[in-house]
Design goal:
heterodimer, A: alpha+beta, Arc Repressor Mutant, subunit A, B: about 230 residues, mainly alpha, 2 domains, 9 helices
């Protein structure tokens, strides 16, 4: 698996582990992780490219364009748990609760 | 719509226009988020971040032989881009240094510029000979895989070994002579010329890890292809 194991990637993976079955929006992820779009999206792209992230276009609210949604794949969930266990909690304080 | 938000929308629209098809979907995703950002300033910062999307590398993961054509296309696009951009830069530099062949105030500067132009011609030769090779549109998967393998090997070798070190070595003597000629022509610029030389050697040094990193990346892709061959 050639994913850059940066603290930012771990932070994003941690954010996905919270309510892991729910689809997430990019801007919500950015706010939750505190990462700027220029950091967040390259991470999302790499995760998707490695088959760890599922993407979908959701129906937008009335009068708004559809938004891109993200969710970890089964493989991605396993990878995220492994990474967070290996590196310890970074950035998002609820990691330990999520893993537990 | 405020000026800042308009600027944000224009920035993202420009990124969408210039992005490759695979990156375009991500830029569109970022544009779709703009409506959810209430602050205009945050919307602009969000849009500026999208510029990084243009520079993210997205190698295709080889899950099966059927992924080879797409991976080969990504590689060919990158090689084409490098050939075009590199050739324009090299020709521009050759013209810039080449004019000193005719208007140089001393022989040292003239010799330096001549060697530099030769080095740049050598670089141009390397760039042109390293451009991607076309493949017949009706080629079967094994032929496409064979071409992809040979292209990966060429790219790996472009960034390491004789190809790479000879490029570096060719540039250095000419530039040193050129700067020395500049110092001799106008002793008041000695400090500037030394700074230029230091910067030049710093760039040469930085080119080493950068190129070796690329070589490692292509070597890994070759290993990925080997593993795929073994599995199939």
């Amino acid at each position: 698996m050639r994913i850059r194991k940066s603290p930012q990637t771990t932070t994003v993976l941690g954010a996905f582990l919270e309510a892991s079955e729910d689809w997430k929006y990019g801007y919500d992820l950015s706010r939750k992780t505190g990462l700027k779009s220029g950091t967040l999206y390259p991470i999302l792209m790499r995760l998707a490219n490695n088959g760890l992230l599922e993407t979908s276009w959701g129906t937008g609210e009335t009068g708004r364009p559809p938004r891109h949604l993200y969710k970890l794949t089964h493989h991605g969930l396993r990878y995220a748990r492994e990474q967070i266990l290996a590196q310890g909690p970074v950035g998002v304080p609820e990691f330990s609760e999520v893993i537990a | 719509m405020s000026f800042l938000r308009t600027l944000a929308v224009h920035t993202l629209s420009t990124v969408i226009r210039f992005a490759s098809p695979r990156k375009r979907v991500w830029a569109k995703a970022m544009l779709a988020e703009l409506d959810s950002i209430s602050s205009d300033w945050s919307a602009l910062v969000w849009a500026i971040g999208s510029l990084r999307v243009l520079f993210v590398r997205q190698p295709i993961r080889l899950a099966s032989l059927s992924d080879v054509p797409a991976a080969a296309k990504v590689l060919a696009d990158r090689m084409n881009q490098r050939t075009r951009g590199g050739s324009v830069a090299v020709v521009a530099l050759a013209l810039a240094f080449g004019r000193f062949l005719f208007y140089a105030p001393n022989t040292l500067l003239q010799t330096g510029s001549a060697i530099l132009v030769l080095a740049l011609v050598y670089m141009l030769f390397q760039l042109i000979t390293s451009r991607p090779r076309p493949i017949a549109p009706n080629a079967d998967l094994s032929a496409q895989a064979a071409l992809y393998r040979s292209e990966l090997m060429r790219e790996r070798d472009f960034h390491r070994g004789l190809f790479f070190w000879s490029r570096l070595a060719a540039m250095a003597p000419g530039f040193v002579l050129f700067c020395a000629g500049g110092m001799a022509a106008d002793p008041s610029t000695v400090h500037d010329q030394i700074t230029t030389l230091a910067l030049f050697f710093l760039l040469l040094l930085l080119a080493i890890p950068n190129n070796l990193r690329f070589a490692t990346r292509y070597r890994n892709q070759l290993q990925e292809l080997d593993q795929l061959d073994l599995r199939s």
